[in-house]
Write a structure and sequence with these properties.
With 642 residues, the protein is an alpha+beta fold. 27% of the residues lie in helices and 20% in strands. Helix 11 (454-462) crosses helix 16 (611-632). The longest helix is centred in the C-terminal third of the chain and has 22 residues, at 611-632. The protein is globular, with a radius of gyration of 25 Å. The protein binds guanosine-5'-triphosphate, sulfopyruvate and manganese (II) ion. Guanosine-5'-triphosphate is lined by residues 290, 292-298, 316-317, 340-341, 344, 471, 520-521, 529, 533-534, 537.
Length: 642
């Protein structure tokens, strides 16, 4: 039976194509939400795939699609002994990371996108996208992927459907989210859901019907990642990579969800989520925000070097935090898998991740060994004598190019993580005891500092700067402001987002979590890291836990509370007293310069910057002036564990 050409509520009307000619499989009986049923038909009619497949996220589907991709040459099966049921994908060299300059917020009002987002008017953008998507799936299969972000039916969970012509995206979604009929069944006639349309933008037949040869990684030089917050929809064209193509991740769970969260009084954040257990059995839940490729996955899977401490994993990239009925802040990881950075991951730096990606994993843009295994920079101290690099070329240690792309990634189910916390899929989430802001800072920011209040914590989050990484296109190592690690991910005006954080804190009152800032990346004069990091970061977590439970004291400094005396457990750690002093050094002059930059940064947002944050900046400046004064008077600035 064909659908009737009914009025569309949420989406623009159908194109002029007659509805008697709907691609096979687009119309599905029993879909309870009429908007959803019509939307699939509309997209199929617009894009004209050869077939439409509704995905169920099953093992059988995974096997079928991965077999087909191996057959087609877009996946390489890895050695089944070393990596059972695992595959390598090599992307187009022009499609290797998120494309921030092609990412748009299409709110009705340009000012709602704010100065940090690219904006397009929704009408004009839709017209342009309809042109690009017209018949863009000719010769391909269109996959319809219904999913839940968060446990099915959970109080904080949300639903979505992604349409894609990329089988790589479809199988990746089945790892990264809860895909299937159970998710589809949750979408009732009035249930809100997020619509995502994705195409790699490379049809397999031209408009005259002539066959076009497929390639291993189809993409299009024209790329768009567009968000329509007022219609809860996402349109992505031309890229098959990561956050550009896996729409539930950054597009939904951060950009769209942040606008929903603003309206509903919760927070959608670029944060890992862990459970930390002390030797005496007390447990704490921490949510920590770090910009892309700055250590979330490592911290989420941390193996503490401190005896008796335990870290359990709940999430490594995204957290949704919502005030619960009891007045505490509760959090879930809306995802169900990891899309983690491969380079730098080793048995030494992250043994848990290495185990997690042993089987049932898709590797993208890593190198291939002669034995059908994978390799990347940092996996082993000695590179293999011969590899096939991420672009498919022969590689030897003399090649002078990276064997794996620096943003190479693994896609693996969270259930394969051996440190997974039992409450990782608790429907009401876990209570958050502390919020931690991190970033990559060669200078200035100490190993750890505690905010003095929620407002001070929001100021710290709002002023985070971090050195750029390979996770986004563009130059690496450039210091840029990345508030809350969310610069590319807030779906509305950044300054309004800061105000929203202040509002959520006010609603939580004295039940608001404590707030901290950490920096594993400070370097000495010789350019080496001052702090060993990785498992040793447990020492910092233990100090944070001590602060939450009131067991350890702080020394006030101009920028917040620093560990006092022996508060930071350094037992058994070989670190020079001078390195430790440098890790906690607060140079008032350098910080005052940073304050000037903060003022310039705030000015970009005009009068939307909350007055509270301006006051925090004034307060910080006056304390730094006082510290500079007492430093010239010869008194020590702060006492640091040494
Ligand atoms: P996205 O998935 O891009 O959001 O990033 P992520 O924050 O999860 O990144 P990930 O944890 O994969 O970051 C990896 C990078 O951080 C690698 O370059 C690691 O070497 C580095 N890293 C992680 N933890 C530490 C640490 O404690 N010390 C140092 N020096 N580097 C670290
Ligand atoms: C990030 O860039 O922060 C990622 C990878 O987590 S992606 O999913 O591509 O956005
Ligand atoms: Mn991320």
């Amino acid at each position: 039976m064909q659908p009737q050409a009914t009025h569309e509520h949420r989406f623009p009307p159908l194109p002029a194509t007659p509805l008697t000619d709907v691609p096979d499989g687009a119309w599905r009986h029993g879909v309870a939400n009429p908007d959803l049923a019509r939307w699939v038909v509309r997209i199929a009619t617009l894009t004209r795939p050869d077939a439409v497949v509704w995905c169920d996220g099953s093992e059988a589907e995974w096997s079928r699609l991965t077999d087909e991709m191996v057959e087609a040459g877009s996946l390489i099966r890895l050695d089944p002994g070393a990596h059972p049921d695992s595959f390598l994908a090599r992307s187009d060299p022009a499609d290797v990371a998120r494309i921030e300059d092609r990412t748009f917020i299409c709110s009705q009002d340009a000012s709602d996108a704010g100065p940090t987002n690219n904006w397009r008017a929704p009408g004009g953008m839709h017209a342009e996208l309809d042109g690009l998507f017209a018949e863009c799936m000719r010769g391909r299969t269109m996959y319809v992927v219904p999913y839940s972000m968060g446990p099915i039916g959970g109080a904080i969970s949300r639903l979505g459907v992604q349409i894609t012509d990329s089988p790589y995206a479809a199988v990746s979604l089945s790892v990264m989210t809860r895909v299937g009929d159970h998710a589809l069944a949750e979408i009732g006639p009035d249930t809100p859901w997020v619509a995502g349309v994705h195409s790699v933008g490379m049809p397999l037949r031209d408009h005259r019907g002539r066959r076009i040869e497929d390639v291993a990684w189809p993409s299009n030089p024209t790329k768009y990642v567009c968000h329509f917050p007022e219609e809860s929809s996402i349109w992505s064209f031309g890229s098959g990579y990561g956050g550009n193509a896996l729409l539930p991740k950054k597009c939904f769970a951060l950009r769209i969800a942040s606008t929903i969260a603003r309206d509903e009084g919760w927070l959608a954040e670029h944060m890992l989520l862990i459970k930390l257990t002390a030797p005496d059995g007390r447990a704490f839940h921490l949510a920590a925000s770090f910009p892309s490729a700055c250590g979330k996955t490592n911290l989420a899977m941390l193996q503490p070097t401190l005896p008796g401490w335990r870290v359990e994993t709940i999430g490594d990239d995204i957290a949704w935090l919502r005030p619960g009925p009891d007045g505490t802040l509760r959090a879930i990881n809306p995802e169900a898998g990891f899309f983690g950075v491969a380079p730098g991951t080793s048995v030494e730096s992250n043994p848990v991740a290495m185990d997690t990606m042993r089987r049932h994993t898709i590797f993208t843009n890593v190198a291939l060994t002669d034995d059908g295994e994978v390799w990347w920079e940092g996996k082993t101290a000695e590179p293999p004598a011969h590899l096939i690099d991420w672009q498919g070329y022969h590689w030897t240690p003399d090649s002078g190019t990276p064997a794996a792309h620096p943003n190479a990634r693994f896609t693996a189910p969270i259930e394969q993580c051996r440190t997974l916390a039992e409450d990782w899929h608790a429907a009401d989430g876990v209570p958050v005891d502390a919020i931690v802001f991190g970033g990559r800072r060669t200078t200035n920011v100490p190993l750890v500092v505690q905010a003095e209040s929620w407002a001070h914590g929001v100021f710290i989050g709002a002023t985070v700067a971090s050195e750029t990484t390979a996770a986004q296109e563009g130059a690496v190592g450039r210091l840029r402001r990345d508030p809350f690690g969310m610069l590319p991910f807030v779906g509305y005006d950044m300054a309004d987002y800061w105000q929203h954080w202040l509002d959520v804190g006010a609603a939580l009152g004295d039940r608001a979590p404590a707030v901290f800032q950490v920096n594993w990346f400070r370097r000495g004069e010789d350019g080496t890291f001052l702090w060993p990091g990785f498992g040793e970061n447990a020492r910092v977590l233990a100090w944070i836990a001590g602060r939450i439970s009131g067991d350890t004291a702080v020394t006030d400094s101009a920028i917040g509370g620093l560990p006092e005396g022996a508060g930071l457990d350094l037992d058994g750690l070989d670190i020079a007293p001078s390195a430790l002093a440098e890790l906690f050094d607060v140079d008032p002059e350098a910080w005052l310069r940073e304050c000037d930059e903060t003022e310039t940064f705030f000015d970009e947002f005009g009068d939307r910057v909350p007055q509270v944050l301006r006051t925090e900046l004034d307060h910080l400046r006056s304390r730094l002036h006082a510290a500079a004064q007492s430093a010239t008077d010869g008194s020590p600035l702060s006492e640091v564990a040494a």
